[in-house]
Every structure is written in C-alpha cells, then in structure tokens.
Design goal:
Length: 469
C-alpha cells in the first residue's frame, strides 16, 4: 500500500527528472482476456488524455472497451479534484458501483486521477470504501498492469499512489477518441501554486517533455492523418523553464508549426509567462490557431494578490490588448472565480469591469470552492452563498451578452471548419470548430468528416454558429 501524503505533495525537489520508456511485461498481457472495461472521466483535457492512455494500456492487457457500465468487468473512475462538486459526483457514483458490486462481486472497481492524489480522499476510501479494488494516481498510470495484477492475486484493495512526481514516461500507448484531433502533453505538473488551486499538489512539480519527443509525436500524428493537435499543460507558457537547454514555448510553437500539421492549439496559458516572442510566433504561422484561453480569475488587484496570481488588472489588460492587436482575428476566452475569500462588491465590480473591457468570446465561470490543503481554504470566507450565487449570475449574464455579440460578427462570413463528426443537435448536420474555436453546426454529408472546409455562417447563437458549405 502506498498512500499519498499532503506534506510531501507540496515539496518541490531539485531531483533531476529522467525520461524513461514504457514497456508492458508479457506476463500482464492476458489479464483482461474475455473481460471488458468501462472508464468514466471527470475534469479537464489532461484527464481526458490520461484516459486515452489508460484505455490503450488496458487493451494491451486484452481488455475490450464497453460503453455500458452495468455490464463491464472493470470500472474505473478517472477523477477531478478542482472543485467540491467534482468530488461529490465521484462519491455519488461510488454508491452506484457498490450496488452493482453487491450483485456482481467479481467486478473490479477503481479510482484514479486527481482525487486519488488527495490524502483525505484516500483516507476516506480506506475507511468507507474498502470494497474498492484499485486506487492509483496521476504519477503512475504506467503501473496499471502491475496494480491490477496485485489486486487479482491478493484479492484485496490495492492502493498505489505516489505523493510526488517521478520520471517522465514516454511511449505510453494511446487510444485516441478522435481520428482528426489529438491531445499532446507538452508538460506535466505546475509550480505556480495559485492559492485556491489543488493542481500543484495533485499533479506535482513542473516537468517539460523533451522537444524532440513532442515533435516526433506531432509528426507521427500528421503522418497518420491527424489535422489538429492541442498542446496540453497546466501552464503551457512556462514550458521549457525546467529543461537544461535554452528552449521555451515560443521555440516549441515554431517547431511544431514547422511540422506543417494543419492546426495547432494550446491550453492553458497563464498571463504571467505570456511572452512577446510567443505572440510573434502565433501571429506569424498560419497553422497556429488564433485562439487564446487566458484565465483572468479576478479583476481586483486585492483578490489577485490573495490568489497569488502575480499580475495586476492593469498588466492583464495590457497583455490582452497586445494579443488582440498583434494576432489577427484572435478570439480570447477566460476563466473567472467569484466569491473568493474577502471579495467585496467593489472587488467583484472590478471583475465585471475587465469583462466589459475585454468582451471575451466566452468565459468559464466558477464559485470559489475551498480545497483542503491549499492556502485559500484557510482564508476567512465571509461571503454568503446567496451573494456568491448572485455574483455568478450577474457575471454570467454579462459573459453571455458578449459571447453572443462576438458570434454576431460571424453572420454571413466564410470560415474554415474542421468537421469532426455528427452534430448532437441534428443528424443531418455535422459539427466542428473554426480556427477561433467557435462551435459550428454545418449542413453536410458524413463523408466530409475529417476535412477542413469553407463554411458560410447563416445563423448565430450564444454558444454556437450554424452554417452551410
Ligand atoms: N474553486 C473554484 N474554481 C477553481 N478553479 C481552480 N481552482 C478552483 C477552486 N478552488 C478554476 C480556475 C481555473 C479553472 C480550471 O478552474 O478558474 O482556471
Ligand atoms: Fe492551478 Fe493553473 Fe494556478 Fe497552476 S497556474 S496553480 S494549474 S490555476
């Protein structure tokens, strides 16, 4: 049993990060024979991509995928810890799985991902959810074959969670959800320690992948027919800072652009590390998409300071204007938290003021959720939930107005859309995204899926556009 420890997860060691290569031992390859698996994923793109790795590892072990949890032999929840409601959903789901396990005791049930990295969660599992079979964290997905093997051999709960990050593991297999769009990790972890955020504890210290490994992955994807890659990291602008070579995010963007893959995106950016050379590279290469997700979190300097964000309202606006002026046709989205401890009505108005100035294409808005072990969880939270809900609603109304306003500019225009699949709203439509990340429903036949096509926008809504080829 290996249990995560809060105090250790905080530590940033000077240990050199090695890169190692994944290989599965032949002895694990028959474990999943005649068995099926079902994975439910919560949270961000990083988790979605981890699930793609987990699926491929399970298939190396001969498990086959099932889309029916009720029938699967192995059920895994890949969890998110970012806010309380993500937590609650997972514990709710565990209730359902327990019920299923009472009827079918041979099911293997497990938890992985960010919640598994939390000491409090693992304590709770050991107290109340002993019937679970496996628990592993974000640092050891590659150990899944061994963890499953131990559980099956010992017939008991196998908990294996490292408190701290280890090596970068290359060549973990991947079963991608899409044939056209791919997630590509460029770095793991985060060293920013924004005071509200659990990520630096659940994902460990910042570790950048070697540029040559990233470029090789993108080249292979291009050869396999992929049209788009999204470079993933918690704070991608800090890419390379931990490498021993002089190489940063602007170098990486340039080199990935030179692979000539059609579309390149990247998430998430922190305003602090967004350099002029990055802006130059993005504006220079046509295959780097003019779409930037630039989390604001708050417009009040007092709150930004309490959040440990390292920028001010003024410097954020300066960066925002620079990006808008230099990158043609750019769309910018953001994340905002309301109800952070000590946020007064004036502080909240500062946030609304930034939204009015930036007129974001869209924004993800959240009520502050205290996360155990983070500094903000200990700050005095004296705002009533009614007030927080009210602020969220007022913010959302403003955000929605600007989202619609931004979309209206597309009416009658021609845009390029990568057609990804059938639209969920109508089977006669396909869906895809513009270079600026606008969701478009297009009247087109299925054989066009996977193409980047010219679409004329015929109708606009707050969250999507309609168009025809
Ligand atoms: N409470 C509310 N929102 C949070 N986020 C991160 N941590 C918290 C928290 N404790 C939001 C931030 C971040 C996004 C991914 O989630 O806005 O950018
Ligand atoms: Fe969390 Fe992002 Fe801040 Fe890192 S930069 S601590 S992931 S909010």
């Amino acid at each position: 049993m290996l249990i995560p420890e809060k105090e250790k997860a905080k530590v940033r060691t000077k240990n050199k990060v090695k890169t190692v290569t994944y290989k599965i031992d032949d002895k694990y390859k028959s474990i999943g024979k005649n068995k099926s698996y079902f994975i439910k994923t919560y949270g961000c793109q990083m988790n979605v991509h981890d699930t793609e790795n987990i699926k491929a590892i399970l298939e190396q072990m001969n498990f086959r995928e099932s889309d029916d949890m009720e029938k699967a032999d192995l059920i895994l929840l890949n969890t998110c810890a970012i806010r309380e409601n993500a937590h609650n959903k997972v514990f709710g789901m565990l209730g359902r799985i327990k019920h299923m396990k009472e009827k079918r005791p041979n099911i293997i049930a497990g938890i992985c991902g960010c919640m598994a990295q939390e000491e409090g969660v693992v304590d709770e599992i050991l107290n109340k959810y002993k019937w679970l079979d496996i628990v592993f964290g974000t640092h050891n997905i590659h150990e899944l074959p061994m963890i499953l093997d131990e559980n099956i051999k010992n017939k008991s709960l196998e908990v294996r969670v490292y408190s701290c990050e280890g090596d970068i593991v290359e060549d973990i297999p991947v079963k991608r959800d899409s044939k056209y769009k791919a997630w590509v990790n460029i770095m793991y972890g985060c060293d920013k320690f924004c005071t509200y955020c659990i990520v630096p504890y659940t994902r460990g210290k910042q570790r950048s992948r070697n540029p040559k490994d990233i470029i090789r992955e993108v080249e292979k994807l291009k050869e396999a027919g992929y049209r788009e890659v999204t470079l993933l990291g918690q704070n991608v602008n800090a890419y390379g800072k931990d490498l021993e070579i002089d190489y940063d995010m602007s170098d990486l963007l340039r080199d990935v652009a030179n692979t000539k893959i059609d579309r390149i995106r990247f998430v998430t950016s922190h305003p602090w590390d967004f350099t002029d050379s990055m802006i130059d590279v993005i504006s220079k290469y046509n295959n780097i998409m003019p779409y930037i997700h630039l989390p604001l979190q708050s417009g009040s300097n007092k709150i930004l300071k309490l959040m440990g964000r390292r920028y001010t309202k003024e410097s954020y606006l300066e960066l925002f204007d620079k990006i808008k002026n230099k990158i043609k046709n750019v769309s910018i989205t953001t994340d905002i938290i309301v109800g952070f401890p000590c946020e007064s009505e004036e502080d909240f108005n500062e946030t609304l003021d930034v939204v009015k100035k930036c007129k974001y294409d869209s924004a993800f808005t959240f009520i502050f959720s205290p996360r155990e072990g983070t500094p903000a969880a200990k700050m005095k939270d004296d705002i009533s939930s009614k007030e927080k809900e009210d602020r969220l609603q007022r913010l959302n109304e403003l955000v929605n107005d600007y989202a619609l306003e931004a979309n209206k500019k597309y009416l009658g225009k021609r845009v390029k859309v990568l057609l990804e699949g059938e639209s969920t709203k109508d089977k006669n439509y396909l869906m895809g995204y513009t270079d600026t990340m606008k969701l478009v429903n297009v009247k087109a036949s299925k054989d066009m899926i996977g193409n980047i096509v010219d679409v004329k926008i015929t109708e606009v809504h707050t969250w999507s556009l309609d168009g025809e080829m």
